[in-house]
Design a protein that fits this description.
By secondary structure, this protein is mainly α. Helices cover about 80% and strands about 0% of the residues. It starts with a helix and ends in a 12-residue tail after the last helix.
């Protein structure tokens, strides 16, 4: 096979992979359900922006006042993301506690129903048997 043919096949494979990648990756969260990892990624991006601002200030591209104003605004956004993550975690904890409580009620109900069918002493109560 010639070099242009191999290069063409390679480019075609890359194009196919580029087109199919969005279909193969995991599903996106529903609107309003932003995973905690996404919040952490957004927070990390904000921290990188603060570091970039600090670098620009050290290079003299940014005044001290502009640096403080911009940095404070970015850090407020990061704090808001932390608050969102905490609220999301509390909501998740509450849902889990509800599910655990419902499962415990179901288990207790089954135990009670099973005890009444067998009788309090464990003997079987079936009609027609002596």
């Amino acid at each position: 096979m010639s070099f242009p043919a191999v290069l063409g096949l390679l480019l075609a494979a890359l194009a196919i992979a580029f087109v199919l990648y969005p279909l193969a990756r995991p599903g996106r969260p529903q609107p309003g359900e932003e995973p905690r990892d996404e919040l952490a990624l957004r927070r990390a991006a904000i921290y990188r922006e603060v570091l970039d601002l600090e670098f620009d200030r050290k290079l003299g591209k940014l005044s001290e006042a502009d640096y403080r104003t911009s940095s404070a605004a970015l850090l407020q956004r990061a704090a808001a993301l932390l608050e969102q993550a905490a609220v999301a975690e509390q909501e998740l904890d509450a849902r889990l506690e509800q599910e655990i409580a419902a499962a415990r009620v179901a288990v207790d109900r089954r135990r009670r129903d099973g005890a009444t069918e067998r009788g309090g002493d464990g003997s079987s109560r079936t009609a027609g048997r002596a």
